[in-house]
Protein 1
Amino acid sequence: MRSTQEQDDEFRSSYPNYNVLDKWFSPDWDDQTRKVVRHRLEKVPPIRFFSETEAQTLAAVAERIMPQPDRTESGRIPIVPWIDEKLYEDQRDGYRYEKLPPQRQAWQKGLAAINETAGILFKGRRFVDLDAESQDAVLKRIQKGDPPGEIWKQLPSQSFFEHMLLKNVVKTYYMHPIAWNEIGYNGPSSPRGHVRIWEDGLDPWEAQEEARRR
Amino acid sequence: MTQQDQIMAGWSLSAPGIHGGRVPMRDWSREEVDVCVVGAGASGGVVGAKLAEAGFSVVILDAGPHWDPMSDFISDEHASTKLFWTDERITGGNDPVELGSNNSGRGVGGSTVHYSMVALRAHPHHFRRRTLEGSIEDADHRDWPLAFEDLEPYYEEVEEELQIAGPTFYPWGKPRRRRYPQREHELNASANVLVRGCAKLGIPVAPSPIATLSAPHEDRPPCVYRGFCNFGCTTNAKSSILVTYIPRAIRAGAEIRGNAMVARITHDSHGRATGVLHFRKGSDELFQQRAKSVIVAGYAIESPRLLLNSAGSLFPEGLANSSGRVGKYFMVQSSEQVYAKFTERINQYKAPPPGGAITEHFNRTMPGVGFVGGYTIEVIGPHPVDFVAKMATGRGLWGEGLRREMLDYNCFSGLGMVGAVMSNVNNEVKLHETEQDQYGLPVSHVIFSYHDNDKRLIKHAREKMTEILQAAGGEDVWSDHRMAHLFGTCRMGLDPDDSVVNVDCRAHDVPNLFICDGSVFPNSTGVNPSLTIQALAARTADRICDMARRGEL
């Protein structure tokens, strides 16, 4: 087990003192953007689409795809609630690969299939009960396209992994202000714009680096 | 006109003004109009505005809302998905096209409210590719039935209206007869990377022509380099159709009807179009809009879908489809992206995503490379949500490695290509056999596979972009597959048995039906298509005026 210090180092941001929300009342934030981001921060939706097992499985998968071991439960960026809301409201993406079923079915089948694969590879255990290394082994087989299991015969695993699991988890993570702080993203910018757009050029309200990582 | 006069004249509706508030607008819903335009985007806005100004009664319908830029556009990636066409489309073939965010718009202004504004003219040779390059095996390589010179005055007209900002001298294509209306934009860090890399390798590079203001124009302010162009411009600096041609159309007496999804085009027993049936938001009822002429401007998926959904006893295979070419010869442009990490901070979220620099050095058929056609190399500037999806899928990266790599988001710089692809009868848009959308209409089934020529062109472009990034000092180069821009499904041609519309975008089969958008392109050129689509729409409006004058409509 690695120490907390090691985990902190692994994800150490170059911008430890930057908080995009400090600009809330600045000319970078207009009313409609404040409304959207406030909702994102304060109104994390309840789970209404996934079953308890599905939600737990997805939470464990999301923790492997975008690990947050450095954060407490209340300080984590929520992932599952927003994917659940997308499916509860059936917000589509504008396209569906012909080999994939409609998104609700795909997610239900895919999460069941992850548990099936975990069981086959690891003596009947559920995905949530595996250690991180074993969980990664399951996900890698799915990403590679050769996971054992019956359900995957109706659902192309590579496509499900890349286009549904991976994209949704990572996009949900980086729509959150905590993620913007970590990477030094300027965040909303309306109506105020920028002047110093060249290399290493920084306007006064952009994220200042404390220590360059590279 | 006083408000009373406007009410007397039927100005009983209002539309969002581009600077807030509402502006009065005509209501044509109970009358037969001269022209009904389906789609208020790059082409529908242009052709509708010009015809309204020429004195025609015009209604322009769009499936999405009439945006108010000052309050509807949000400075946030995730919240901007409402700008895209997110109804289901099924995508297949060997190289399925990712649709939604990248290739569609929904709402007045269409995709021009979120496009990247690169405003290029096609080159004279793009219109004569079959003649110059010969036939290509397993492809249907085509000339256009019109020449660059037919469009040249319309490129100039549209560039003037959009106030394209570009350099005094632009080194590619036919030399310009007059300079760009506005001065070029400053280069951002990613554009400097392109310039630096090209300079090292001896590749010519130039400031890119972009459809956002570099100086005030009428009541619109210049661009302040917010960098949120792909999520809707809140300052009106961006010359989208929503803030240029749409206000012109309204002033000239057109009605812009948002939230109006057209289900089918109606016709009479003589085979002439009589109007459209459409759903309005909040109602299951089908409304009829009667019209003397119908112009379809829904882009290369919705336009053929509407024609196919408008089949009837006179037109069993779909309206205007006696040739069987509606939906066929679907094309995209290859738009592979390549990224590298730099020691400097790039901060790719700043300034318009095209950065301000471009090279069309490879936009020609080159000897000895093993493929025909060419491509442009442009700068890109994705924000984190878009960027992480590219990095995760492009590199197959996730877990601790992905989160660590994203900590360097501000140090990545990227280039993207816009490449010509071959026309091929097996690539098509058809109606899906079982799936329906929210209106109960069959959804589109889009089939696409790259030609070998396309694959060789993409490989060449990926290598060149990699060399440029490395010459500029970039490390850890990676790429992401991508396609952009849609064409070909109602192609233009001289032979009614082999094409859907003639050179005036008029349907061969239905004399008062026009199809005017990217779907009429017989080949995909090697430049971003918006300016060509707009120029073609401007020309079509003039041609319709000519035909009306001669009593030929």
Protein 2
Amino acid sequence: MAAISPASSLPASVASNPRRLLSGNEAVARAVWESGVRVAAAYPGTPSTEMLEVLSRNSPTDLYTEWSVNEKVSLEVSIGASMAGSRAFCAMKHVGMNVAADALMTFTLTGANAGMVIAVADDVGLSSSQNEQDSRTWGRFAHLPILEPADSQEAYAMTKFGYELSEQFQVPVILRLTTRICHVKGLVQTGERVAPVAGRFEKNPRRWVMVPGHAKARIPLMFEREQQLRAAAETSPFNSIDEGHDRRVGFVTSGPAWMHVREAFPNAPVLKLGFSCPAPVAMIRAFAATVDTLLVVEETEPLLETELKAAGITCHGKDFLPRIGELSPEVLKPAVARLLGESVAAPAALPAAVFPRPPTMCVACPHLGVYYTLAQLKNVTIAGDIGCYTLGAGHPWNALDSTISMGASMGVALGLDKGRGEADKDKKVIAVIGDSTFLHMGMQGLLDITYNRGNVTILILDNRTVGMTGGQANPASGKDIHGALAPRVNFAQLVEALGVKPERIHMVDPYQLPTLFKLLREETKIAEPSVLITNRPCVLIDEYQKQQAYTVDTDKCTGCGNCIDVGCPAIQVQRREKAVKASGKEVELQFVAIETAACTGCGLCLQPCAPEAIIPAVAVQSINVMKKH
Amino acid sequence: MNSVDKVTNILVVGIGGQGVMTATEILAEAAISRGHDVKKTEVAGMAQRGGVVSSHLRFGPKVLSPQIAPGEADLIVGFEAAEALRWCHTLRPGGLVLMNTARLVPPVVSGGLYDYPADPVAEIRARGIEVHAFDAMAIAIELGDMRLGNSVMLGAMADHLPFPADVLLASILRRFQARKPEMVDVNRRAFEAGRRADAQSKQAPVTA
């Protein structure tokens, strides 16, 4: 029996519509390109990364794109381009704006010259982030307009509108996206590119040099601009009402929450805000008068709700709706039932109990040896950082003691050192940070360690790429955003320049476990900053070279399980046995196999294997025959 | 009847690196070629690192929310046995689960922290759900390349869609014609093998 009955035939006009299936990120990139933007900059970060990736596929003469070292620099590059008279674009994930905020909070005073759109992508629901933030807050904080698309088509349209709005009011515009915009694909009707215009920089210190006297004069202009923007929002076509006959609850909503509201309550009146900040309060007040109860549906903070209540508009919001995580029809329906005093429908079938599948490091990842080694060290506290290597906090290594923000391993380690009490006086403090994260915001922390004579051993895991977001280039890659050769930072020279003694700097092969262990043990004993720099590439980038795969000689495997502690996903336990040691202690033996098709022969698991049961897989039949073509 | 009722909901689930997102994209392209409005979304934050991937595809005259609500999936396509079980509660009454019986065991299971479900197919059937189960990985390997599993799974879906199987096949082959024309024929065979596996699995219940 077919699961789905055939749908009725669709109109030919729909069938012939040549729209493109684009993710929100792709739609924004397309609109940026069509808007004649000349400079676009970003630091990669889920869910925002693809915007710059897509833009970078354009010729550099057509559109300048760069991976910046961090979000603040990316915003500053964009600010400079706007000052220079070129339309500019900058994209970042929500936490990126925390880094960029210093520039943002003054850029709002100078305002933009050529159009400037800043796309900020909120990871609502924390699929790949250390926290959850509502970036609409920046609109209130920096007195800037916020546009909130509800799907790919709107992401496209609002980006284009953003450039017009930016130039009309000389204001940077924040395009607020969420994961459910960035990574949802929908059909988009695209258009043609307008020719980019390169204006000129007009010397004007009162506008661009924000010393106190100049800045003070700009603040009233900023507030005046905000009033004008509010008036514009009141009449914006992006703020509109979906009529509905069931007036018991009227909804005010924005962004992807609008889709969920429409899906869950197709007969309710809905005021949809696309140009959501400054909030069109008069429009909302008039709408509120047409419904019995007003419910504000927003992801995630009650920003609009608080504003409406302050304006004397009676409404509900977070008293019925969750303040964290993504909204969806199944979240909204029971909340509205409670608001109406109706009985809440029983949930659909409960999920089956299935093991979790946490993300793992890749087969042969150069980080595996580092964490295997760190897990062996006793009496250490290890400050971690943001990247693939944050996974070292998980099974089987459990090797990280902190993760806060990009680059934080440096300062946190120094604080752990300086703040230690008597109980921790003999503990060694280690910091672990990746190449890109070190260049993003770790360098300053290391300088702080050397300047303040901290006692921290630092591991810079240089795998030459931004691994977690999919392998973007950075100054450690030796490549630019287009893959063309670019200057490659020399970490040994860099950390020496930051004050680490040359004899305390070591380049180390992370696949050589005994060397790594010996160096770590020695350096942690020395009461001054040391830096170990690993020198092998990410297994997912072109520089990685596969070696002969390994297999397990089952006759020799004693089930000791040492190789499992490496944490390589290619090593699988085949069977377990209970055994009693000579000491009388009961142990569980774990006999393993290596998934030879996945193994790339890094040789890590051989090293802890005492019986030498791991051997080259010389005669393994290749099941991947097509790959040779 | 509300237009939302005509939306088809397909949930494709598996593990990062299995090609779940690509398969859903091909399915989406087939739906678009029939004039449907389409939305496709997945939660795949760290999918490349062996995590769970669930790709939602909704198509019809007009699609609003991109997510399939629990209890509203018409079809669940599991690229891995335990993943099909993980998501089967999102199926609507009378819906269908198609699943690859191949097991991909994560380190947390291999390391002894958790157990792999003894019989995922039986567990899903115990919920009164119709399951078509087959070893897509074995079929792909038989055809010479593990990566053909994607076309095998798409083939298995082909007779459960509101459009003819050929539409989906054309959508697959279009991709290969553009980039790897030498792969067109073997993918066509993988697709047909998937269709057969699905048809046969109705008669002969399989255990994962």
Protein 3
Amino acid sequence: MAASKGNETVLELSGIQKSFGSLHVLKNMDLKVNKGDFIAIVGKSGCGKSTLLRMIAGLESPTAGGLYMNGKPVKGNSLAKIMFQDGRLLPWKTVEQNVGLGLKKGSHDKIASLLKRVGLMERAKDWPGVLSGGQRQRVALARALVHEPELLLLDEPLGALDALTRIEMHQLIEELWKEKQFTAILVTHDVEEAVALANRVIVIEEGRIALHQSINLPYPRQREHPIFIKSVSRILHQILGTEKVSPNQEPRKLLEG
Amino acid sequence: MKKRMNSFIPWMVPLLLLVSWQIFSSLGWISSRILPSPIDIFKAAIELGQSGQLFHHIGVSTKRAFWGFLIGGGIGFALGLWNGLSKVAETLFDTSIQMIRNIPHLALIPIVILWFGIGEEAKLFLVALGTFFPIYLNTFHGIRSVDASLIEMGKVYGLKGISLFRHVIFPGALSSILVGVRYALGITWVTLIVAETIAANSGIGYMAMNAREFMQLDVVVLSIILYAFLGKLSDYTAKLAERRFLKWNTNYQR
């Protein structure tokens, strides 16, 4: 249940590079994402993880390398929807208008059912300005999911929330992921969040994949479980550079390329 | 009760001024040859109202303000949109517009009289020119300052072209545009006052100048008060529009 459903590749990155002027953000990156995967990308700030996500969303194009969605090159990725860190709700539209953004007329039932699912049905007519941070991110989540994306991209969506709200959101995202069976890629700097949600955690360092760790734990995950704790500490050590990691885990890129 | 008090407070100072003005006039401390008393001005208003002259002049002035504002504001809005949305248009037009903007439009009165005489065109031209710039500038600035991350979000969610403009860019620019509208309405009346006193044969400014010839000081002061009143009225209308269109913004909620 935790592992990917089948081995159908949804997204493939091969030899991806991205430079901004003389700054090389991503250096030769390969990654395969299977249908139903929940991938978490962690790394220090400035390591290129958000750039990678924006590239998958079609908001940036790679300097070199290929990016394929269901085997086709990505150009303005309409099969993926991105949920931003700051929510980016339109302040002049009500909650339900925000969720319905870009939908055809007559999608009212779809909007209502998702709003109900994220627990904001009674706030449908409110302005985003009066919602709390957590509620705003729920609206943003509903807005992303109403399009029934094949791939949901989460760009540090919970970074600005308090710890309790974050745990509630983890549960909600996990439930929706199981329910709607989409593939998800989460960029985060919170290692526990990554281990709580993802079946594969990728650590990016200096524009390369430094660690690729599978998490084989059933959902919902117990944070006290020894494997959970071990995984978190292993990833943290990798990020902080406090321990040499033995290279016996999964495909792992060393500093070549 | 408290709400009624609150809406009364802004009017306390004008009312107090009015009452003391009347008292000082009645006591003879202010000569009626310098400043007529409020009651005299009120009487003059009734007299002119009964003869129909008052409403004729108010009507003429309001019509000029309306059309001048509509033409100047309309062109300013259109150019502001165009230059705000297109880098090419901005490069082409903005420098020229900024050059013209630095000429006070009232400085053009002599040449406008030579061009149009004292006909309606002269007043419309001046009002349009005066209202053009604040609306142009604020529309342009409003469009340019729409949050780029919201535009990006709109594109991710499938908005483009007209729908992106309608749902994201225009509402994002609207508060700035409405500031321009309020500012332009103020300029409309200032322009009209000057233009009508110098070159007109109807309108409130003309009424004032005409009264000056006959030493009707009460009518002169009445005209000045009318301008203040009409200016306030149009500002109030713009404020209502702000409240209506920006009701999502907590800064504009009552």
Protein 4
Amino acid sequence: MSRTDTYVVVGAGQAGGRAAEAIRGAGFSGRLVVVGAERVRPYERPPLSKQVLTGAAAPDTAFLRAPDYYDEHGIELMLNQRVEAIDRGSARLTLAGGETLAYDKLLLATGSRVRRLALPGSELAGIHYLRDLDDSLTIAKALRAGARVVIVGGGYIGLEVAAAARKRGCAVTVLEAGDGLMRRQVAEEVGDWYADLHRRHGVEIVTGANVEAFEGGSRVQAVRLADGTAYPADLAVVGVGILPNVELAADAGLEVDDGIVVDACGRTSDPAIFAAGDVTRHPNPILGRRVRLESWQNAQNQAVAAGRTMAGEETPYAQVPWFWSDQYDVNLQMVGLPDRVDRLVRRGDPEGGAFTLFYLKDGRIVGANAVNSAKDIAPTRKFIETGAKPDPDMLSDPETSLKKVLKAAG
Amino acid sequence: MADQNVEWHAVAKASELEAEEPEFAKVGDTLVCVVRLDDGIYAINDVCTHEFAQLSEGFVDGCEIECPLHQARFNLKTGKCTELPAEDDVASYPVKVEGDDVYVGLPKG
């Protein structure tokens, strides 16, 4: 590394922003450029489906840093700018305007995009997707009291939008194709608990809903299911998952496998190119497998590890995956990525509104869903990291602190 | 911090403070997190500097405490922030034990 080197970060989301900070923080003194397709400096996305939608927080609270930060740290932000291609032979990027940008090292933090439905009527006005700040502001504006909102998808995004829409006085219907809510993310009984929560807040939940078409003239007026039922809508919000933006990497011949393949330090198959955040498929030593994660934690911490490594401070990323969702006044946190589970242990009382469900395999905790029980997450992570076997009776007793359960497990 | 600049407040019973099990106390408008570690009792401000969350609900790991909301970390002995997403330190307060009473020294005024 020399003072005259240029490091370029492609993507100015949370991962790109945190990676750039880490590159500087680790002592890189050359030119550092962050190229971003959006019009604004790096921000984090969790508030977009929560406080920004409800109006509880100003949109600018989502920004990672104050505007001056980037100048002060010699980080050049090239916003509103897309990268069209990477020429690895000459180590140059081609930007959308045709200009080129040379790099000595490159970090790809191209993130994800929403999965779009291709159904009859998909092009109608009033059908929204939520990914970036502008999407959030547009939806927030459309959530007028009394508006009929039909949400397609009963995962985190759909349900957080449902909660925000109820808070704004909209009539809300959630259409979920599966047989319960958040089936990919949480245990069935937790998903069912959430269905009750939403119903108590006046949301109509429809499961097994196979959406067939959006109906309307120029604007959406209804969402129709395969069984013919039509749900009248002033607006629709679709939250059916995201796809990693791997094309730039794939076109450049980097190894891609549902995500840009990187090592524990964020290196791609080209030693001059790193990748960070949602778009990566990286090894997780605690889980013992490669994962691609769509999470705030990963967008921050895996990016910090990759950025540091790029600046010469070898930093493997090794954390237990962790996610959260806020709906109404309920905080849900999930830790671990359990695949096979042979026992569930409950701690606390679902009726009382706060409980944690632990996933066990061969006597070891491999994950947990904590409902209004955030404090259970850190000790659970310790269990997952160490493989310690808890006493299930102690684990299920809310009067015994998890710290004690952990100590007893040795 | 010199004694004359602080006001001492009894916040806990030493015999009731279990190792690495944080306790919470409210002194006026100030929320305080009190923890017994191997080498003594420490007190820091209880409110995470990232978003509102009480650190006393968090997890003690060595001489650090982790915020239950977004896993920011603070050194219990100094208040220093050691992990994102928080960036600012929390206040650290002097502690003294008299008999079984744990006192925390808060700035005067």
